[in-house]
Structure formats: structure tokens, C-alpha cells
Amino acid sequence: MLTVDFDRLGLQAGDRVLDMGAGAGRHSFEMYRRGADVIAFDLDADELSGVKDLFVAMAEAGEVPAGAEADVKQGDALALPFADGEFDRIVAAEVLEHIHADVDAIRELVRVLRPGGTLAISVPRWLPEVINWKLSEDYHNAEGGHIRIYTDHELIDKVTKAGRFNDGTPGDAMVFEGKDYTHGLHAPYWWIKCAVGVENDEHPLAKAYHRLLVWEIMKQPTALKWAGKVLDPMIGKSMVLYFRKPEAA
């Protein structure tokens, strides 16, 4: 289940790509399949172990183009262990809402992106997320859970100003290039979960809707594809913002 549109990101075979907050690796795997040189970066060593195993399995099964490379790296989003301008593309999907010092994390993303490179950031969309918070305190009070709800204007402002130095003088300002909304079918599932209990996976309504989502992901039926296209702009659970770092003068 992908959130980022890699064509819109401008991903090409041979690009060096950072998946910051890779989690279980869903975006890393697709970028690897497209021939990128991928670094899956996360704080969770156990998650990264599984990602690395699947990278190896994909290569052995011939699922990736010749020459593509992929590896994992554990570390802190506030101090990325990479050189300035090291990456052509960066993906940070559903991670900033978990980080207290989000501006510092954004500055690190801008730092390691090369001039001319592109960045995709996805976060929970404001309205669906507000409904979740209103329905359940457990939804966002869990350890490692969501600590803020972004508006598009707030996050765009934080990213486009991230290249400025601490004294306010201009640095490598980021250019906002557009946004998408995705996973419209998934927002009602989380509203149901929050209403019946986020840990209550056995509730009949939650189980039934979960089966629908599994059908959508595994079989991709035409009817649900069209339903998603209709619902995405209205109640899409995720907001995806795209940015470009200007070429050096």
C-alpha cells in the first residue's frame, strides 16, 4: 500500500534514495524494484532486520534491475549519518507526526538532499486525524503515537523555511511543488476503530471493514479503485506534499 507517487517524485533508476522512517519498508521495496539505490533508515532495528532480509530475497528472485542496490541504516532522524547533498530523492512517509523536534528533522532532510533533488513527505490529513483524536484518546496517547496534527499550510511553511539558518538568513530554501490526498477508503476504518476501541480488532464492524481493505490491497478490484479515487480528495487519510531543492547558483 503505497502513499507516495514515485512518478511525481521524479524517481529514476540509478537515483540514490533515502526512505526516512522506513518502518516495514513498503516504499523502500517499490523504489528498489524501480532500480533506485535505496537506504531504508529507521530507529527500529527489528523492523530494519526484516527489511534487509526482504531486500536480499528480492535480489535473489530477480525482482530488481541489474545494478540496483539497497541497504538499511539505523539511526536518529535528528542527526542523519549522511553527507550534505547525498541523496537525489527522499521519502518521509507517516513519520514527522511522531517526532517532537519535527523542524530539526526537516532540516536534516533538506541538508542531505542534493540541489535539484526532490522530497516527498506524507502525514495524516487534518480532518480525518481530528476525528480520530476526538473519538479516542488511546489512538494518539499510545507510546510512540501521533503527537501533532498538521495542516497543509503549517507543514509547507516548515519545509520551505527549513533551509534558513538559525539567525533567519536564507539557506537552501525548498520549493513546494504540489500535494495529493490518498487512502480515502482507510479513513472510515480508523474512525470505526477509534469508536469501538483501537485495540478491539474482534469487533464485527472493524473485522468486516478490515476484510474490505485486505481485498482492496490484494485484489485491487475496479469498483474499489474508483471508490478510492472519489474518496481520496474528500477524506483521504494521508496528505502527501512534494518539494524540490533548487539547483545551486
TrEMBL record:
Protein name in UniProt: Class I SAM-dependent methyltransferase
Pfam family, one: Methyltransf_11
Lineage top rank: taxon: Bacteria
A GO term for molecular function: S-adenosylmethionine-dependent methyltransferase activity
Keyword Hydrolase attributed: no
Record-annotated Methyltransferase type domain positions: 18-121
Gene3D superfamilies in UniProt: Vaccinia Virus protein VP39
SUPFAM superfamilies given in the database record: S-adenosyl-L-methionine-dependent methyltransferases
InterPro entries: Methyltransf_11, Methyltransf_Superfamily, SAM-dependent_MTases_sf
Keywords: Methyltransferase, Transferase
PANTHER family from the UniProt entry: METHYLTRANSFERASE (PTHR42912), N6-ADENOSINE-METHYLTRANSFERASE TMT1A (PTHR42912:SF93)
GO biological process: methylation
